[in-house]
Write a structure and sequence with these properties.
Layout lengths: L2 E3 L8 E6 H11 L4 E4 L6 H8 L4 E4 L3 H14 L4 E5 L3 H16 L3 E7 L15 H5 L5 E4 L6 H13 L5 E7 L6 E3 L15 H12 L4 E5 L6 H14 L3 E4 L13 E5 L5 H9 L2 E5 L21 E4 L14 E3 L3 H8 L8 H18 L13 H11 L5 E4 L5 H7 L8 E3 L8 H11 L5 E6 H7 L3 H7 L4 E6 L4 H10 L14 H7 L3 E5 L5 H15 L3 E6 L8
Parallel strand pairs: 3-4, 3-5, 5-6, 6-8, 7-8, 10-11, 10-13, 11-12, 13-14, 14-15, 16-17, 16-18, 18-19, 19-21, 20-21
Antiparallel strand pairs: 1-2, 2-9
Length: 558
């Protein structure tokens, strides 16, 4: 390494020089990145070399889709954006699914993509593609490092863009020749992210709105919270006997057992949640907006005479459906900081309203603790025994499919980021997100619930779990079909089942082949013993465990 001596009077006595690839890694370290999920490629070897002696853990994944999902999940759990690294062309294409998840879920994430050498551009070089043409419509920013000396600046800009405003994905292209250029190693400092907050007018408007409401309802959502902010909101709601529902697949911000928590709002919800959206005379959305899932395809709560307060840092209200009475531009934690200064007397009507909604939620979400008995395995039996075994800090992850309804309904999420899922309905998310959660929180009980169709989309990442010591419990509900699509098919094209049936391997043997514990369960009576064995393998052997649950099959054809 060479050094350049500077004027003794200057603040920096020496300025080291490093390659741009190494400076990129140093900048990520300075921004608090602890882990990156990668599928290696010759296009960004200098960055991989920079990671070699870095404090950042490099998690080598088996597919770019799995790596992108892990980074996206990490962005949901962490105060800094999740980071993935893939190679050009096919690698970038495979990672695109994670970007779409990040975009629709408003998750801060940065995807670094190795590119062809600068001098080969526009010559149809091997694996050449245009990052802007591919990603501009589905990322907050797309940047290409065309000048090596800007390496640290561009990383800082990417981390800022991913976190600022409504969070989302950012793509950074890294030409393989540019990242090898030696540059001044001085690092660009992190760029502060504006958090907004309530103005005096905002504060008065919300206070007056709450004072005049008989049946107010808060709805929490998004990934832009901290545990402290979520706890602060929960305490304030409980003190004032006010109810809070959760946006689809974001349960836990207000804990499952809080007297203020009244259930999830989204697909698979109970009828009560449709009714309370229309019945409430004041809705306060915090960290999210009433999108199409919450409003059942832009149908529920569309009357502009209704009162909706929307608390979001995104002034554009992207994805909003229905009336807007007032917008407060603030990130959730800052909103809560200002909210708790509103000290209103709790109305008797609030207590009655909250108690009614809470009672219905408790009844809906309590698994029936019956003996398993004989017959085909059942997911409700599995959930009853699983829930009884869970510690209070347990986490659940899942992707998309009818199997997810069991997690929505029964899993006791007791804090922010205890439910990690994909609100864009992306299949294949379950195993990668569980691996990321287990690595992020070693020692916590991490459970993922997958369908048989979803599991095989990224089940190979169990190899990543084994390699890095992740220990999730994977429950695969096997009904030998793409169940959600089959249900739609039954509704729209009755008696014409087409393109939804599956023939599956033994997933328990697959788990064993990857180095974990696997058990296949066909009979309901065998569920408790199988669950005990799986949890024992995790706790005593330090491995992941998979339960292949063969549930009752619907008639496959007519």
């Amino acid at each position: 390494m060479t050094q350049t001596t500077t004027d003794p009077a200057s603040p920096a006595q020496t300025t080291a020089r490093k390659t741009a690839g190494h400076v990129i890694v140093d900048t990520l370290v300075a921004h608090g990145v602890e882990r990156t999920y990668v599928v290696p490629g010759e296009s960004y070897l200098d960055v991989l070399d920079g990671l070699h002696e870095s404090s950042i853990e490099t998690v080598v994944c088996r597919h770019e889709g799995g790596a992108a999902y892990m980074a996206e999940a990490d962005g949901k759990m962490n105060p800094v954006p999740g980071v993935a690294m893939v190679t050009r062309g096919p690698g970038a294409a495979n990672a695109h699914v994670g970007l779409h998840t990040s975009w629709q879920d408003s998750t801060p994430m940065v995807l670094f993509v190795g590119l062809i050498p600068f001098e080969h551009r526009d010559k149809e070089a091997f694996q050449e593609f245009d990052p802007h043409a591919w990603f501009d419509s589905g990322a907050k920013r797309v940047m290409v490092l065309d000048h090596a000396e800007r390496a640290s600046e561009i990383v800082a800009e990417a981390m800022f863009a991913a976190s600022s405003g409504r969070p989302g994905p950012v793509v950074v292209g890294l030409p393989e020749d540019i990242i090898r250029v030696e540059i001044d190693a001085a690092l660009h400092p992190p760029i502060p992210v504006a958090t907004g907050g309530m103005t005096v007018n905002d504060w008065k408007a919300l206070r007056d709105g709450l004072s005049g409401a008989e049946k107010p309802l808060f709805v929490t959502g998004g990934n832009d919270w901290t545990c402290e902010g979520a706890a602060g909101l929960t305490a304030w709601l409980e003190e004032h006997h006010l109810p809070a529902a959760a946006e689809w697949r974001t349960e836990g911000t207000v804990p499952f057992d809080s007297p203020s928590y009244v259930g999830p709002i989204g697909y698979g919800r109970p009828k009560l949640t449709f009714e309370m959206l229309e019945e409430t005379d004041l809705l306060v959305f915090v960290g999210t907006v009433p999108g199409d899932v919450i409003t059942n395809g832009f149908l529920v709560r569309q009357d502009w005479n209704k009162k909706n307060f929307l608390v979001t840092i995104d002034p554009s209200l992207r994805g909003r459906s229905g009336p807007v009475s007032y917008q407060i531009v603030a990130k959730p934690d800052v909103f809560v900081r200002d909210l708790v200064r509103i000290d209103l007397p709790a109305k008797p009507q609030w207590k009655e309203w909250t108690a009614r909604l809470r009672a219905a939620q408790v009844e809906f979400s309590t698994p029936v603790p019956t003996e398993p008995g004989e017959g085909p395995a059942r997911m409700d039996t599995m959930m009853a025994h699983l829930v009884a075994s869970l510690p209070t800090d347990a986490m659940v992850t899942f992707g998309a499919g009818e199997h997810t309804n069991f997690a929505h309904r029964y899993f006791p999420t007791q804090g922010y980021a205890s439910m990690i899922s994909a609100r864009n309905g992306s299949m294949g998310y379950s195993v990668p997100s569980a691996v990321a959660a287990s690595l992020r929180f070693p020692g916590r009980r991490v459970v993922t619930i997958a369908g048989d169709g979803e599991f095989l989309m990224n089940g190979q990442e169990l190899a990543t779990a084994a390699q890095y010591g992740a220990t999730p419990l994977v429950i695969v509900m096997d009904n030998q079909e793409y169940g959600t699509i089959r249900t739609h098919q039954e509704r729209d094209y009755p008696h014409r089942i087409s393109g939804t049936q599956l023939k599956n391997p033994d997933f328990a043997l697959m788990a064993q082949a990857f180095g974990g514990f696997g058990v296949r369960v066909e009979n309901n009576a065998d569920i408790p013993a199988a669950l005990d064995s799986a949890l024992r393998a995790i706790d005593e052997d330090g491995t992941f465990a998979l339960i292949h649950l063969i549930v009752e099959q619907r008639v496959k054809a007519y």
